[in-house]
Structures are given as C-alpha cells and as structure tokens.
Specification:
Number of helices: 10
CATH architecture of the largest domain: 2-Layer Sandwich
CATH superfamily of the largest domain: Histidine kinase-like ATPase, C-terminal domain
CATH topology of the largest domain: Heat Shock Protein 90
Shape: elongated
Number of strands: 7
Oligomer: single chain
Helix content: 55-70%
Strand order of the largest sheet: 1-3-4-6-5
Structural class: alpha+beta
Length: about 325
Amino acid sequence: MFRLVALIISIVLQIIAVVIALRLTKVTKYKISWILISTGFIFMAIRRFIDLFQFMQVKPFDNLNLLNDWIAVIISVLISLGVIIIPEIFNYIKKEEHIRKVAEKKVLNAVIQTEELERKRFASDLHDGLGPLLSTVKMSLSALVKSEKDQANLEIITNAKNVTEEAIKSIREISSNISPHVLTNFGLASAIKNFTDKIRESKVINIDFHSNMFSVRLESDLEVVIYRSICELVNNSLKHAQADLITINLNIRNDIIDILYDDNGKGCNIEQILEGQTKGMGLQNMSSRISSKNGYLKINSEKDDGFHAFISLKTDRTNGKA
C-alpha cells in the first residue's frame, strides 16, 4: 500500500516536472540542452507509469522490466548530454542581459542628449529672443530719462529702467543655469567653479571646491553628466541638509575621474531615497546618469553625520593635461 502511494505521488510530481520543463522550453528559445533535459523528464514519467503498471499486475512482465532498464539508460544519456551542453543556456541569458543593458544605456544616453539639446534651445530662446527685446526697452527708457523734465514721471521711468535691468540680469542667469556657456566654452572644472562661486556669493552656504582639471577637457556628454550630478548634490544639500559647508574635490588621474562630495548637514536615509520611497527623484536620476557612463557611485549618510558621495568614472580626454 505504501509503495502504491509512493508511486502515485512520484507520478504526479514527474508530470508536474514535465509540464514545467516543456513550458520553459519556449523561454530558453528551444535550446537543444533544455530539450534533452525535458525529454529526460518525459522518460522519467514513463518509467513511473511502467512501475505502477507492473505493481498492479499479479505477475510482472520481464519484457517491461527490460524496457524499464533501457529507458533508465536513455534518461541517463539525455540528462548527461543536456547538462554537458547546458552552458549554452547560461551564455544565451548572459548575452540577452548584456544586450538589454546596452539598449538601456543607449536609451538613457539619448534621453540625456535630448534633454541637453532642449536646455540649450530654451536657454538660447531666452537669451537671444527675450533678451534683445528687454534691451530695446531699456534703451528706450534711458532715452526717456534724459528727455523727461517732470520729476514724478522721471522717477517712474527710472524705476521701470531699473526693473528692466534686473529682468535682463535674471534672464542671463536663468539662461546660464539652464545651459551654462562656461561648461561648453571652458570645461567642467571652470563651470563647477562658476556655479559654486555664485552660491558662495549669496552667503547661504560656504562651498570649498578643489580640482586639478581646469586645463582638462572631456567628452561633452561626460562633462554634462558630471556637471549635472554635482549640481544635483549641491541643490540637495541646499534644500534638505541644513548644512553650512560643502566640500567638493574633482580630480583626474590616469584617465580616472574621482569626485568626493561632503556636506556637514543633518544627513538622510539614503536607502529610502534610492529605492524611490521619497518624493524627490534627483538622486535617482543622478545615479542613472552615472550608470549610463559605466560610472561608480557610493553614497553614505547618517543622522547628524552629513552627506558623503563618491563618484568615479573613466574617460578619454580630448585635449589638455591634468
């Protein structure tokens, strides 16, 4: 009785294994190794049925026992061959994973490039479109200031002229922030210094920036990724850290760029941020940008222990020396 139960359970399990194996055959793109293994499972199930049939007979059939033995040999051959050549499945999976990662990086690079093109277009529209119009208004107001005799009207015109000057200045700053011309014309280190100097001048926070890359130019898309990443880190500190000091070290050695970023703020829960459990997406986007360049990012932050980031990327310098 116990053997009958065992045989029935064995048959059920073998049938389940056969069904799963056959379903996985399509997933493995009909690789011969998995077909051999699946066939082996089928013969295993057949053996169990033969055993059950023999068990139900009063007198076992010798021919069926012989058949069972030969099926066992076939199973051994099939499983052995399948295991020997099964690396083709793992190679296929590895290849597909590589293709997927390459495709993701291409899509991400395309998104980054499109974003930067839109930034440049928008910045250009502001600077070259609205800027000249406001400059014309300023010139007209300056002419009115010279010709106006009524003191009340003169004050109104002068105030309008000053407001127009502030608007022109704001447009230039906005245009520069959207697509910094310093990055395009003078390189990464100069652009970051220009960015940090403006923040330092506001007296909101002190920023120490050090670099050996002021005479180094990189691939333009890599410069953009690093610049946007550092800007994101600084903005994150300004918004959330309650820090009074940021230290940034940007250095290159043997075509490896290392960025060390530290603030002395209140810290944060990095795992929640990178896993998308918070509202902000800035650090996640930064991480994606760095990954698109095969870069390395490590962030440490604990309560009352500040925020610390390390970024490392490889580059082929276009010109200049460190």
